[in-house]
């Protein structure tokens, strides 16, 4: 689903101000847009649950908006069309530096709020195809998720590095899981939190092979994409997964614009970490939504309101993550 920036900005501009926004009130609209992802992925249900929790606890209305995913979310937060957004730190790093998808434009208004969860790359194909390894993806129709998402950004580079000419198809995850079950796709290269409920449902309907990198492939990819880090999905996470699945992944963070009011950013972070049980009820990946995982951010400055919460919680903030605006 494409997010119309003009309509969102107009909607935010027309809302009344929150009653508690005594400081920098112009930066605290009554409805706070959270840029999430496509239906069938993790961002969308995570964002819907987060919006409900924050609306109840913060005293401002939050609304989750479906988007194409990480790249679009960084752009929307940078432009002020969404107050919150979800992104992997690899996509955020490219935006910050102006490399890769950013194509020379530096996105320097984004600020980190809180760590969400790890996104492992999961390469799956129906067992009936007997692909055997990642090399079996050559010439096959492989779902890569939304083109502006993490998969759409990283998978072309990964397959190019491995010299595997997979035929990547882009679209909403939910649709791509359905297409795999119907035989319209030969597999999926999913950049999603694990366990992903709809991937789990697909595996129950259409038993899957989970295809892993070799150690040589890991070394090659990380030499070109050093922001990727080792990730493990435990055995049993999916019906067909009988042993630990070793792959590569990227950590997800919630981000905001540097112009967001300090009090709003503080209340958001406080609500997330002080309602961990409610977060777990939103999505199983929220087990990793812990303040201690702040160390997975190595470059993106924290919003000052978020930094206030971490200091109160006794969590050290590296000097390079300190921001005054």
Residues in helices, as a percent range? 25-40%
| Average pLDDT, all residues | 90
**Structure annotation, total helices:** 11
Percent of residues in beta strands?
15-25%
Shape annotation: globular
Separation, N- and C-terminal Cα atoms: 32 Å
Helix and strand element order = HEHEHEHEEHEHEHEHEEHHH
Radius of gyration of CA atoms, rounded to a whole number: 19 Å
Low-pLDDT windows of residues: 1-26
Strand segment count: 10
Query: Major sheet: size, sense and barrel closure?
Result: 10 strands, mixed
Structural class by SSE content? alpha/beta
Give structural notes:
The protein is globular and about 55 Å long. It has helices spanning 5-13, 43-58, 70-79, 89-97, 150-162, 173-182, 197-205, 215-224, 262-274, 276-282, 304-312; strands at 31-35, 61-65, 84-88, 110-126, 141-143, 167-169, 187-191, 208-211, 229-233, 245-257. It contains eleven helices and ten strands. The protein has 325 residues and is α/β, with parallel strands linked by helices. Helix 2 (43-58) crosses helix 9 (262-274), helix 2 packs antiparallel against helix 10 (276-282) and helix 9 (262-274) crosses helix 11 (304-312). Strand 1 (31-35), helix 2 and strand 2 form a beta-alpha-beta unit. Strands 1, 2, 3, 4, 5, 6, 7, 8, 9 and 10 form a ten-stranded mixed β-sheet that branches.
């Amino acid at each position: 689903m494409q997010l119309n920036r003009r309509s969102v900005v107009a909607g935010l501009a027309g809302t009344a101000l929150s009653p508690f926004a005594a400081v920098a009130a112009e930066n605290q609209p009554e409805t706070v847009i959270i840029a999430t992802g496509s239906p069938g992925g993790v961002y969308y249900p995570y964002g819907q649950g987060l919006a409900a929790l924050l609306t109840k606890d913060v005293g401002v209305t939050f609304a989750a908006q479906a988007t194409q995913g990480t790249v679009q979310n960084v752009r929307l937060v940078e432009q002020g069309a969404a107050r919150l957004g979800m992104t992997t730190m690899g996509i955020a790093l490219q935006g910050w530096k102006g490399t890769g998808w950013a194509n020379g434009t530096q996105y320097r208004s984004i600020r980190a709020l809180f760590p969400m969860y790890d996104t492992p790359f999961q390469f799956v194909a129906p067992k009936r195809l007997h692909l055997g390894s990642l090399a079996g993806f050559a010439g096959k129709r492989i779902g890569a998720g939304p083109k502006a998402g993490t998969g759409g950004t990283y998978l072309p580079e990964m397959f190019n590095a491995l010299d595997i000419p997979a035929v990547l198809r882009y679209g909403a995850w939910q649709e791509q899981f359905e297409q795999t079950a119907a035989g319209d796709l030969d597999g999926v290269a999913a950049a999603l939190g694990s366990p992903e409920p709809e991937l789990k449902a697909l595996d129950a309907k259409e038993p899957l092979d989970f295809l892993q990198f070799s150690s040589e492939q890991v070394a090659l990819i990380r030499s070109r994409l050093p922001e990727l880090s080792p990730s493990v999905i435990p055995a049993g996470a999916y019906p067909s997964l009988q042993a630990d699945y070793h792959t590569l992944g990227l950590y997800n963070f919630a981000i905001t614009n540097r112009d967001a009011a300090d009090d709003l950013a503080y209340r958001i972070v406080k609500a997330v970490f002080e309602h961990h049980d409610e977060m777990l009820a939103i999505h199983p990946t929220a087990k990793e939504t812990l303040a201690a995982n702040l160390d997975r951010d190595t470059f993106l400055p924290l919003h000052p309101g978020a930094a206030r919460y971490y200091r109160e919680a006794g969590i050290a903030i590296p000097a390079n993550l300190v921001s005054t605006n």
